[in-house]
Amino acid sequence: MIIEKAAKQLEALGNATRLQVYRTLVRAGDGGLPVGRLQEKLGIPASTLSHHLQRLIVTGLVTQERQATTLICRANYPAMTSLVGFLVDECCADAGCAPHEVETAG
Hints:
Layout: H1 3-13, H2 16-28, E1 33-34, H3 35-42, H4 46-58, E2 62-67, E3 70-75, H5 77-88
Antiparallel strand pairs: 1-3, 2-3
Helix pairs in contact: 2-4
């Protein structure tokens, strides 16, 4: 991933409302959510939601599809995976240590 693209995506997610919008869409799964339902879930004005969605769309984190008169918003999972991978791929690369193991309860 190009560092400038990662920076723009992280900047977009650096706003609390956009992060909330994005997390809601991530939770919605592949089917996404109609804009009206997303607005209901978040309780924010339509113009505010539109502004924040546009920023997430421009950075490639969210896609929008028109189905008749309804706009469906979806998290772009490949973009999310790429961004998360960019952040963790080189974890401890210069430290020469093994990655931390995840402990399981039990």
